[in-house]
Design a protein that fits this description.
The protein is mostly beta strands. The chain contains two helices and nine strands, in the order E-E-E-E-H-E-E-E-E-E-H. Strand 6 and strand 7 form a beta hairpin.
Protein backbone atom coordinates (compact mmCIF):
# COMPACT_ATOMS: atom_id res chain seq x y z
CA UNK A 1 0.00 0.00 0.00
CA UNK A 2 3.00 2.28 -0.22
CA UNK A 3 2.16 5.61 -1.74
CA UNK A 4 -1.53 5.64 -0.85
CA UNK A 5 -1.91 8.98 0.88
CA UNK A 6 -5.12 10.98 0.87
CA UNK A 7 -4.97 14.73 1.22
CA UNK A 8 -7.85 17.12 1.74
CA UNK A 9 -6.09 19.79 -0.25
CA UNK A 10 -5.48 17.78 -3.39
CA UNK A 11 -7.20 14.46 -3.96
CA UNK A 12 -5.03 14.14 -7.06
CA UNK A 13 -2.33 12.66 -4.80
CA UNK A 14 -4.69 9.72 -4.39
CA UNK A 15 -4.63 9.15 -8.12
CA UNK A 16 -0.90 9.48 -8.85
CA UNK A 17 -0.85 13.21 -9.39
CA UNK A 18 -3.66 13.38 -11.92
CA UNK A 19 -6.19 16.17 -11.69
CA UNK A 20 -9.27 15.41 -9.66
CA UNK A 21 -12.68 15.75 -11.25
CA UNK A 22 -14.95 18.17 -9.40
CA UNK A 23 -17.45 15.69 -7.93
CA UNK A 24 -14.80 14.15 -5.65
CA UNK A 25 -14.11 17.50 -3.99
CA UNK A 26 -14.45 17.17 -0.23
CA UNK A 27 -14.23 13.36 -0.32
CA UNK A 28 -12.75 11.79 2.81
CA UNK A 29 -12.07 8.22 3.87
CA UNK A 30 -13.46 7.21 7.25
CA UNK A 31 -12.28 4.32 9.40
CA UNK A 32 -13.05 2.79 12.77
CA UNK A 33 -10.79 4.51 15.30
CA UNK A 34 -7.33 3.22 16.12
CA UNK A 35 -8.57 1.32 19.20
CA UNK A 36 -10.00 -1.42 16.96
CA UNK A 37 -8.23 -4.61 18.21
CA UNK A 38 -8.52 -6.76 15.09
CA UNK A 39 -7.29 -6.66 11.50
CA UNK A 40 -7.71 -3.45 9.46
CA UNK A 41 -7.86 -4.08 5.72
CA UNK A 42 -8.62 -2.36 2.45
CA UNK A 43 -11.33 -4.43 0.74
CA UNK A 44 -11.66 -2.40 -2.43
CA UNK A 45 -11.72 0.99 -4.06
CA UNK A 46 -12.71 2.70 -7.25
CA UNK A 47 -12.46 5.89 -9.23
CA UNK A 48 -14.41 6.88 -12.32
CA UNK A 49 -12.54 9.21 -14.65
CA UNK A 50 -15.86 10.01 -16.31
CA UNK A 51 -17.88 11.04 -13.24
CA UNK A 52 -15.06 11.72 -10.78
CA UNK A 53 -16.68 9.40 -8.25
CA UNK A 54 -14.35 7.85 -5.69
CA UNK A 55 -14.98 5.15 -3.09
CA UNK A 56 -12.96 3.09 -0.60
CA UNK A 57 -14.10 -0.05 1.29
CA UNK A 58 -12.44 -0.91 4.61
CA UNK A 59 -12.83 -4.08 6.71
CA UNK A 60 -12.31 -4.27 10.45
CA UNK A 61 -12.36 -7.80 11.84
CA UNK A 62 -10.90 -11.23 11.25
CA UNK A 63 -7.92 -11.20 8.86
CA UNK A 64 -9.72 -13.92 6.89
CA UNK A 65 -12.97 -11.95 6.41
CA UNK A 66 -14.86 -14.23 8.80
CA UNK A 67 -18.34 -12.70 8.94
CA UNK A 68 -19.13 -14.80 12.03
CA UNK A 69 -16.45 -12.92 14.03
CA UNK A 70 -16.98 -9.35 15.28
CA UNK A 71 -16.51 -7.06 12.32
CA UNK A 72 -17.42 -3.76 10.70
CA UNK A 73 -17.22 -2.68 7.07
CA UNK A 74 -16.97 0.99 6.13
CA UNK A 75 -17.65 2.36 2.65
CA UNK A 76 -16.66 5.97 2.09
CA UNK A 77 -18.00 7.35 -1.20
CA UNK A 78 -17.96 10.74 -2.85
CA UNK A 79 -21.28 12.57 -2.80
CA UNK A 80 -23.78 11.21 -5.33
CA UNK A 81 -21.68 8.10 -6.00
CA UNK A 82 -23.92 5.21 -7.11
CA UNK A 83 -21.61 2.84 -5.22
CA UNK A 84 -23.12 3.94 -1.89
CA UNK A 85 -26.63 2.90 -3.00
CA UNK A 86 -25.34 -0.39 -4.41
CA UNK A 87 -23.37 -1.09 -1.21
CA UNK A 88 -26.43 -0.39 0.92
CA UNK A 89 -28.53 -2.80 -1.16
CA UNK A 90 -25.83 -5.53 -1.05
CA UNK A 91 -25.29 -5.12 2.69
CA UNK A 92 -29.02 -5.06 3.36
CA UNK A 93 -29.41 -8.37 1.54
CA UNK A 94 -26.38 -9.96 3.25
CA UNK A 95 -26.78 -8.69 6.79
CA UNK A 96 -30.39 -7.83 7.43
CA UNK A 97 -32.16 -10.53 5.42
CA UNK A 98 -29.61 -13.29 4.75
CA UNK A 99 -31.00 -16.09 2.63
CA UNK A 100 -34.26 -14.25 1.99
CA UNK A 101 -35.49 -12.41 -1.08
CA UNK A 102 -34.91 -8.71 -0.32
CA UNK A 103 -37.98 -6.46 -0.22
CA UNK A 104 -38.72 -4.25 -3.23
CA UNK A 105 -37.81 -1.13 -1.24
CA UNK A 106 -35.96 -0.45 1.98
CA UNK A 107 -38.11 -0.67 5.09
CA UNK A 108 -38.21 2.15 7.63
CA UNK A 109 -34.90 2.74 9.39
CA UNK A 110 -34.28 3.67 12.99
CA UNK A 111 -31.87 6.45 13.94
CA UNK A 112 -28.57 5.54 15.58
CA UNK A 113 -25.95 7.97 16.84
CA UNK A 114 -22.38 7.25 15.75
CA UNK A 115 -19.36 9.37 16.61
CA UNK A 116 -17.49 10.74 13.58
CA UNK A 117 -14.40 12.87 14.12
CA UNK A 118 -15.48 13.26 17.74
CA UNK A 119 -18.97 14.58 16.92
CA UNK A 120 -22.23 12.65 17.30
CA UNK A 121 -24.02 12.14 13.97
CA UNK A 122 -27.31 10.44 13.25
CA UNK A 123 -27.24 7.54 10.80
CA UNK A 124 -30.15 5.52 9.42
CA UNK A 125 -29.93 1.94 10.71
CA UNK A 126 -31.61 -1.30 9.68
CA UNK A 127 -31.56 -4.45 11.80
CA UNK A 128 -32.97 -7.94 11.67
CA UNK A 129 -34.27 -9.17 15.01
CA UNK A 130 -33.15 -12.73 14.20
CA UNK A 131 -29.42 -11.87 14.06
CA UNK A 132 -27.07 -9.25 15.52
CA UNK A 133 -26.06 -7.81 12.14
CA UNK A 134 -27.07 -4.35 10.98
CA UNK A 135 -26.57 -1.85 8.15
CA UNK A 136 -26.32 1.93 8.58
CA UNK A 137 -26.09 4.90 6.23
CA UNK A 138 -25.09 8.48 6.91
CA UNK A 139 -23.27 11.49 5.59
CA UNK A 140 -20.16 13.08 7.04
CA UNK A 141 -19.61 16.39 5.28
CA UNK A 142 -19.77 15.60 1.56
CA UNK A 143 -18.85 11.93 2.04
CA UNK A 144 -21.53 9.24 2.02
CA UNK A 145 -20.79 6.44 4.50
CA UNK A 146 -22.34 2.95 4.51
CA UNK A 147 -21.54 0.74 7.48
CA UNK A 148 -22.37 -2.87 8.25
CA UNK A 149 -21.33 -5.11 11.07
CA UNK A 150 -22.00 -7.26 14.04
CA UNK A 151 -21.09 -5.01 16.97
CA UNK A 152 -23.42 -2.37 18.39
CA UNK A 153 -23.23 0.55 15.91
CA UNK A 154 -23.65 3.22 18.59
CA UNK A 155 -20.35 2.00 20.08
CA UNK A 156 -18.44 2.92 16.91
CA UNK A 157 -16.14 5.89 16.66
CA UNK A 158 -15.24 6.85 13.09
CA UNK A 159 -12.24 8.97 12.21
CA UNK A 160 -11.10 10.62 9.00
CA UNK A 161 -7.92 9.00 7.68
CA UNK A 162 -5.45 10.42 5.20
CA UNK A 163 -3.00 7.52 5.07
CA UNK A 164 -3.99 3.90 4.50
CA UNK A 165 -0.45 2.51 4.51
CA UNK A 166 -1.08 0.93 7.93
CA UNK A 167 -3.99 -1.11 6.51
CA UNK A 168 -3.23 -4.51 5.04
CA UNK A 169 -4.33 -5.13 1.50
CA UNK A 170 -4.77 -8.82 0.70
CA UNK A 171 -5.72 -7.90 -2.86
CA UNK A 172 -2.61 -5.78 -3.58
CA UNK A 173 -1.21 -8.16 -6.23
CA UNK A 174 -4.50 -7.91 -8.11
CA UNK A 175 -4.59 -4.10 -7.89
CA UNK A 176 -1.00 -3.17 -8.72
CA UNK A 177 -1.95 -1.60 -12.03
CA UNK A 178 -5.04 0.19 -10.72
CA UNK A 179 -4.33 3.96 -10.87
CA UNK A 180 -5.90 4.71 -7.49
CA UNK A 181 -3.13 2.90 -5.61
CA UNK A 182 -0.28 3.04 -8.08
CA UNK A 183 3.24 1.76 -7.41
Amino acid sequence: MAGFLITDEHLGDLMNGQDTPGSAKGFSVFAVDANWPESRQVMGHGHSRVTGDVHVYLWFGSPHFDAEAEHVTVLSASSGNAESTEALERDFELYVHPGEEPPASLPASVPVTISADGKPLTFECWRNSSNPSWVARGRIGSTEVVLSGSIEPSMLSLVRVSDLTSFSNPFAPLMKDFPLFGN
